[in-house]
Amino acid sequence: MADGERPIEEGVRTDFRSRMNYGGYLDLDKLLDAQHPVSEPVHPDELLFIIQHQTTELWFKLVLHELEAVRTQLQEGDISRARKGIARVKHIFRTLAEQWSVLATLTPSEYAEFRGFLGSASGFQSYQYRCVEFVLGNKNAGMLKVFEASPEHYGGLRSLLESPTVYDAFLRCLAARGHDVPAEILQRDVTKAWVEHPELVPVFTAIYEAPDAHWAEYAMCEDLVDLEDAFQFWRFRHLRTVQRTIGYKKGTGGSSGVGFLRRALDLTFFPELYSVRTEIGN
Ligand code: HEM
Ligand SMILES: N[C@@H](CC(=O)c1ccccc1NC=O)C(=O)O
Question: Mind listing the pLDDT tens digit for each residue in 181-198?
Answer without folding.
Answer: 999 999 999 999 999 999
